[in-house]
Amino acid sequence: MPKLPSWLANTMEKVISNKIYQVEVTETKMLSSNLKCVTFKGDFFDAKFIPGNEVLLRVNANEYRHYTLSGYDEANETCEVIFYLNRQGPGHHLAVNIQKGDHLKLIVDRAKVKYNEASNQHFFFGDETSLGLYESLGKKVMEEDVEYFGVLELQEENLNSVGHLKLLIDTVPSDVNAPAKNAITWMDNMHPLCWEMWQNATFYLTGRAKSVQQFKRYLKQRGVSFRQIITMPYWEIGKVGGG
């Protein structure tokens, strides 16, 4: 989201006050040295969260950052966000300092990546910034009793983080100079029968823009149709992103 003059940000919050929730941080836990899961509690009885729902947090006087909910509990009126502490970007300072007992404003936004209700197979590709989305979609898949699988390219220190989330998904080391290369190699090593079984799946590609581009190109070469691929690049080196 672009920078706003502080007076305009304040005015905007008054205009969309029905989408703003006062929340309290009730729990924080580290999934790795730079992945932090935070639970927020608020009066979410009318929020109508869906899988893939995004929220905005005001990270300073002039800027907001989008985050995808990794989960929500309507009964207990809580929701969760997984923050990637990338040590850069305006969101890092806020995320790294969030602690239990803090009170914040949370703005509910729409879901930019939506779960495909018509599909009975869902394949996820992404990186650290994709974890919240896929945790959310993975829960939906389990509720629907259909299938999901996928691969994430993660930094070495984050490779075990999916175990904390109970995500049924594989991981490969990311290579900043070769986006999606290790994930594509992982795909090439997949048994041919797997391709036959998953040829009609919905493929969700998120995270680094160049990785999304390369992985999409690979899928097209393997015969996956355009209508089966959902893309949402979150960031790229040298560009201001969601961190």
Automatic annotation (TrEMBL):
Matches recorded under InterPro entries: FAD-bd_FR_type, Riboflavin_synthase-like_b-brl, SIP_fam
Gene3D superfamilies xref list: Translation factors
Span of domain FAD-binding FR-type: 18-126
Molecular-function GO term, any one: oxidoreductase activity
Domain of life: Bacteria
Protein's name according to its UniProt entry: FAD-binding FR-type domain-containing protein
Organism lineage: Bacteria, Pseudomonadati, Bacteroidota, Sphingobacteriia, Sphingobacteriales
